[in-house]
Amino acid sequence: MTTFREFHCDDLLRFANINLDMFTETYNFGFYFMYMAKWPEYITLAESPAGRPMGYIWGKAEGEGESWHGHVTAVTVASEYRRIGLAQQLMGILEAVSENTHDGYFVDLFVRQSNNSAISMYKKLGYSIYRTVLQYYSGDEDAYDMRKALPRDVEKKSIIPLPHPVKASDETD
Amino acid sequence: LRQSRKEGGGAKQQAGMSAGYEEQELRRLRPVWEALDMHNYKLACKLTTAALRRHPADTIIAVLKALALVKCGDSKEGEALIEQVRATKPTDPNVLETVTIVYKALNKVDRVTELYQEAWNAKPGNNYLAEHVFFAYVREGRFDEQQQTALRMFKMWPQKHLYYMWRAVSTYLQGRSKKDLMVLAEALVRKACDDESRKELPPNEVELYLQILESQGKHEAMLSALRSPRLIAPLEKPTRANRTAREAALLLRLGRLDEARAEFATLLDEPGGRLDWAWLTGYLDCCPLPEAASQVTEYFEKLQASQQQNRGPHLGMAELEKRLIEKDATHGYAGLTQRLHQYVSAFGTKPSCILDLRPYLLVLAKAPTDKLRDFVLQVPAASDKSDDISMRLFTLHHQIERVLGLHKSKTPEELEALVATFHEKYATFVAAHPPGTADISPADDLVLLASSLLQELFEREHKPSHLLRAAAILEGAVAKSENDFQIRLTLIEVYKRLGAAAPALRHFRSKRCDIKNILYETLGGTVLDDALRYCMFDDVKHVTEHLMLVHQENDTSIPDNIIQAYQNGVFQKILEFIEFREKLQRSHLLAASRVEGPLATLLQLQPQAGAAAIREALAPTATADVIAQLTSTGEAEDLTDHGVRLAPLWEPEPPAATPAEDLSATSFVPGSKQLLRLRGTVLALLAAAFAEPRDAALIGKLHTSLREGCPTTPLWAFAEDLFGALACVLSPTEAHGDALAVRAPRLCERLDALAAELLAPLKPEAELVARIKPLQAFVSQVGLWAALALVCAQAALPSRKQKKGQAVVTREQLRPVAHALQRQLAREVSCAKELRAAVPAWRAAAVAAAGVAMPADVVADEVAASYLQTLGALEASAERQVALAAQLKF
């Protein structure tokens, strides 16, 4: 029993039950408004019938040529709404936007190497590890760059794993 | 800063600057920009000063120096330098953009408009400059000028469709108050959508069109648009469902129920599609009840069968039963209880189950109690196992009992027994399944339930030992599940009930919750009132400073994001951004921070600090705008609370907020608009009284506003008389002399009455916190206001040496008031000392009553330390007031 809809500014005043989770970052206005002013179609809120925010996803379209893709910037679900497949549905919505609205080649995301439960969930959703990005998280932890090819990438070239890790400072897309 | 420079890059090339020149400029200025980015403003000043010595005519260096000066706090010199640059009428984009940054830092965005207007006048063919004139108007919110500028730009550069849309949006924004302009905006956007020369229609323009129609209530036109062949393609991005869902909702609003139902069914029948709750309830909305009940049941059963793992159709059945009961009270609860049992069987182990059930349990709660008990008995719970699933079902059983209100009828002994069971079950579970560092234990809800019951016991028996036990149990649990913010928030509430602000603030500051940015606006209110009332001044300062930063960002950054939306063609977001910004500007918490911050500073001022220090304390917020907002009834009523309540999921909603009757409350209390107006007006009166030169007329005006709509609370009446007396002294006329003769004795009476109520001796049976609050109310309001007002009156009154016959208002008239104040302030100090001495006995008694040795002991220590901190601060403030009052020589 979830309603999925576009994230509105007013939701910033209501999402505390999601953002008090210590792994969910609360950014400044500049971040949220920049996304809403560029990619409103990429930002979705899951809401309960009572209007309680359940989770959200933020993303964007970026890259050039065959690197044109959708990127998952943040996906998070409130602790009380976990284990009901909400993250999977939010990811599905973002993938549909990347495929149908932006005609991207793939979708990618970054995840902490230590976050085994998230990595396992992304694998179930069809993502694979494309490369390791060294010291991506404020220099204290490496990240996996995980990707899922979209139909436009017929030969699935975008997800062929890189043999060597890259430095966070060299990471471009 | 570096980011804003990078973003400007493309635009500058558009303005005719070569990439090579850009590179060279960036290299040359890099050290200065780096110093600014690193907030090393002194270094930036040094570098620019040296560079200017070598190249005195280098405008960009001069602007960077101005920026460094402003950032260093030398706004005056920075502004003078920037005005010198502006006098040269610059047109170089680098210079203009940097000057813009300086004006924004100076909060003078109107000058940015003039700056770019002058530049465009100098180079009328330059569309980069034209765009920035438009953006400058956007920043100021001058929609009319935006529209005129965009129109002029589109005439000059007709190939630029974006300029056409900027004109349309600017027209739309004015259309909110002018109907003819709304019609014009609709026509402009419709024309853009109909333009067949454009191969692909951007979805954002279609969204804007629908928004304009919606704002006029043109639902039929919206439906036509949704079905228009040209608009279908952009509306069906990313999926066809996107358009169908809107069409279905619109048909429902138009009352075309059969068509709407068919559209909702199309959405729900999509193979593998999601069963969005809005679609399920939309389908239900289309079905007349009770006539169509069996049809709905059949349809939902079909959906259930096709998607068994989906919660929607199962709960849809409960929703149907709820609507049937609401429609006909005789319908009975059998259907609802059956659906809820089925739901528990299918999804009872999901953490969200109690939230899903809650609206239906609240309906069921109206059924006779025996039926409720029967219902609960059928919810599986009696398992001795301590595995995850058994634990969740056991918890759910008791959460349901709580939502149904069954705990209300239990005896204290029964509640105590439940608390013991929950605690024991919790301890067994976490011993077997210790939560990892990042996890929240499924057993945590049991601890929260135990805390709910202990708080209920406190409400019934008023024994603080119940709260101490709740705090001890919760502290034990949060030590294991450090990331469980719900436990921390509950602890904050428990400590607030105990009047112990220090441990409440410890949890609020926890890194695990990581409260920052906008969360200060939504959660700051949970602690600010108690932090201030219990004199945790550093925490009040910390939270309000962060809150101010959020609002500063609202004022300065969001206009830039609105500009971004124009640039990116995301037109449908522009009005939303503007309205959000305006909404935040009407924040109750912001207004309260502006009032309470300076008042708290006054409370801490040393008596010898003098009038200059008082003026300095009041200066940040005693501006005309703030005074207008705080003292005008209309504006105060317009303020809104954005606080969110995050109580455990099964706890009942609190009754609607009522204005605080507690005299110790601060204006941070949500909904305390009268109190905010009183304290805001007192702040403004003090600022006007200590201003140089003193503005007696403003004091009279503020005092009149204090009298308007004056509620009959003793504190308000006291303030009215106190500042009425001050107004008489500051505008000495014969009439005022007579008025003071009436006011002064009344003021003495009011002062004595308030002291009698708030500074009463400690009764042996009284709860300690119940005595701290009145003392605080006296110290932070009565004592502080009276001492400062009399100091100000003394300075304005003629001295004894002057001839009596010449004065219409004399010191003698206020002498009894000064004596009464001196007498009551002495009582204030002894009251604080007496309460401090009583803290150890309170601690010992509370621990003995709690009956739990170690954890309650530790919690009691922290609570007692918090009381001592509060009383220490109150005693110090009281002593400062005594010293201040000792200077009064009437």
What is the gist of this entry?
Chain A has helices at residues 16-19, 29-38, 86-101, 116-124; strands spanning 3-6, 44-47, 53-62, 69-77, 106-112, 128-137, 141-149, 166-167. Chain A has 173 residues and is of the alpha+beta class.
Q: What does the model show?
A:
The complex is a heterodimer of chains A (173) and B (890). Chain A has 173 residues and is an alpha+beta fold. Chain A has helices spanning 16-19, 29-38, 86-101, 116-124; strands at residues 3-6, 44-47, 53-62, 69-77, 106-112, 128-137, 141-149, 166-167. Chain A has an 8-stranded mixed sheet. Chain B is built from 44 helices and no strands. The longest helix of chain B has 40 residues, at 811-850. Chains A and B meet through strand 1, helix 1, helix 2 and helix 3 of A and helix 17, helix 19, helix 21, helix 27 and helix 29 of B.
Q: Report helical residue fraction of chain A.
A: 10-25%
Shape of chain B: globular
> Rg of chain A to the nearest angstrom?
16 Å
Total number of helices of chain A: 4
Largest sheet of chain A: 8 strands, mixed
The class by helix and strand makeup of chain B works out as: mainly alpha
For the terminal residues of chain B, how far apart are their CA atoms? 58 Å
Provide keyphrases for this structure.
heterodimer; A: 173 residues; alpha+beta; 4 helices; B: 890 residues; 0% strand; globular
SSE blueprint and pairings:
The complex is a heterodimer of chains A (173) and B (890).
Chain A: E1 3-6, H1 16-19, H2 29-38, E2 44-47, E3 53-62, E4 69-77, H3 86-101, E5 106-112, H4 116-124, E6 128-137, E7 141-149, E8 166-167
Parallel strand pairs in A: 4-5, 6-8
Antiparallel strand pairs in A: 1-2, 2-3, 3-4, 5-7, 6-7
Chain B: H1 2-14, H2 19-37, H3 41-54, H4 59-72, H5 75-87, H6 93-105, H7 109-122, H8 127-140, H9 143-156, H10 161-175, H11 179-194, H12 203-215, H13 219-227, H14 229-235, H15 240-253, H16 257-269, H17 277-285, H18 293-306, H19 311-327, H20 334-347, H21 353-364, H22 369-377, H23 388-403, H24 412-432, H25 444-461, H26 464-480, H27 485-498, H28 501-508, H29 519-523, H30 525-533, H31 537-556, H32 558-568, H33 574-585, H34 588-604, H35 610-618, H36 624-631, H37 633-638, H38 673-690, H39 696-707, H40 714-730, H41 734-758, H42 768-796, H43 811-850, H44 854-886
